[in-house]
Amino acid sequence: MFVMGNLIVALAKIIDLVLGLYVWVIIFRAVISWVNADPYNPIVNFLYRVTEPVLAPVRRWMPFGNMGIDVSPIIVILVIYFLQFFLVKTMIQAAVYFN
After folding, report:
1. Domain count, the chain
2. Angle in degrees, 0-180, between the axes of helices 72-83 and 2-35, rounded to the nearest 10
3. 81 vs 95: CA distance, rounded Å
4. Which pLDDT score is estimated for 79?
């Protein structure tokens, strides 16, 4: 059953890596929104396409959306950190039971 434990650890590390990369994508998106970049630029277009499906529901859910500052990236990053600290560590600890 050690194979199942190793599989769970590998999945946990991949999830951790993907979540970490997504945090950087959100940070780049926030920085680009400050400088009013060209929306037809392929990089800007990619960042908007990748982050908007996650940020838009958070914006609709927030009661203070008309503050003038978009805090949805901060909230999404906090949720991602929670997932990294809770979900990934729980998966790694669960893999111990299979070893």
Report:
1. 1
2. 170
3. 21
4. 96
Tokens, residue 43: 């990089």
3-class secondary structure per residue, the chain: CHHHHHHHHHHHHHHHHHHHHHHHHHHHHHHHHHHCCCCCCHHHHHHHHHHHHHHHHHHHHCCCCCCCCCCHHHHHHHHHHHHHHHHHHHHHHHHHHHC
Residues of the chain short of pLDDT 50, as ranges, are none
Q: Which amino acid is at 22?
A: Y
Domain of 41 in residue numbering reads as: 2-98
What whole-number distance in Å separates Cα of residue 46 and Cα of residue 16?
22
Are 75 and 59 contacting, i.e. CB atoms less than 8 angstroms apart?
no
Nearest alpha carbon to residue 26 among 66, 85, 64, 74: 74
Which tokens sit at 40?
């037809």
The pTM of the full predicted model, rounded to 2 decimals, is 0.86
